[in-house]
Amino acid sequence: MTAALPLMLKELRLPSIHRFWEEYAAKAIDNRWSAAEYLSHLCELELADRETRRLTRRLQESRLPKGKSLQTYDFSAVPSVNEAQIQALSQDVSWIEQSRNLLVFGPSGVGKTHLVSAIGEELIQRRQRVIFWRTTELCQHLEVAKKERSLPHFLMKLEKYDCLILDDFGYVHRSDQETQVLFELICHFYELRSLMLTCNQPFGNWSSIFEDKAMAVAAIDRLVHHGTIIEIAGESYRRRTALSHRAAEVSPLANTNK
Ligand code: ADP
Ligand code: MG
Q: Are 120 and 64 in contact (CB under 8 A)?
């Protein structure tokens, strides 16, 4: 009677039950589980594994930089970042459901990419789909899509994500075409999906990103309408850690010279 069970479980795509049904059958006898208890233990197992597989898949597709999590983010190093605010943005996904945006400003090396990646990872843990793009790279893809007349299709593919990360928005060159596609992207996602953006240029300089001033104003308008802005002040974390490493290397020498 049970000979066909492995095949049926495969056909039904229940790999965890397929793997464990025999082991659990023995457990059921030992623990005197009812048939319903046995079945619910197996279902629990399948659901838990499915969740883990889903998470792994979502993390892979997100292309988030590795190791940039909230656990490795040192809030004490950046007093201008409000930890409670970041925790709230990470744990409560209502801003994503409302297609709100998050704009992170600050000079190079202060941890903008790390911060948005960490939030992105937390959002994925909370069942949101996230994708990370360097903005210049995305612009190139958008441009190719436009030339091949497949821009609507490409935008539709991006729509399957709840949150699009545009890293280094300020590095976009203001050649007419790039500016145009970037603007189209912002318009398309406005009130439709969330954008998380990092930028080293304050809004005042955005005329250097968008050739056309009216376009810069229209883009800013759409981004900030339902948006939260975080400004990270201070010195580059990269530079600071490089300097402290150098100091650590130098000091033992200094001691031996004494
Ligand atoms: P930005 O995007 O602002 O140029 P990054 O996010 O790339 O800066 O940060 C530069 C480096 O410093 C990265 O390796 C990042 O992980 C690290 N870093 C920045 N801020 C912090 C922080 N507060 N805690 C831990 N690491 C940080
Ligand atoms: Mg960066």
A: yes
pLDDT single digits (tens) 188-202: 999 999 999 999 999
Residues with CB under 6 A from ligand 1: 68, 72-74, 77-78, 106, 108-114, 198, 237-238
**Which residue's entry shows tokens 């040192």?**
74
The residue count for the chain: 258
pTM score, whole prediction: 0.87
Q: Which CATH architecture has domain 75-235?
A: 3-Layer(aba) Sandwich (3.40)
User: Which residues have C-beta under 5 Å from ligand 2, the single-atom ion?
Assistant: 113
Ligand closest in space to the Cα of 168: 2
Residue ranges, CATH 3.40.50.300, the chain:
75-235
Dihedral pair phi/psi, residue 196, rounded to 5°: -115, 125
Average pLDDT over residues 76-94: 96
Could you read off the pLDDT of 221-250 as tens digits, one per residue? 999 999 999 999 988 887 777 777 666 665
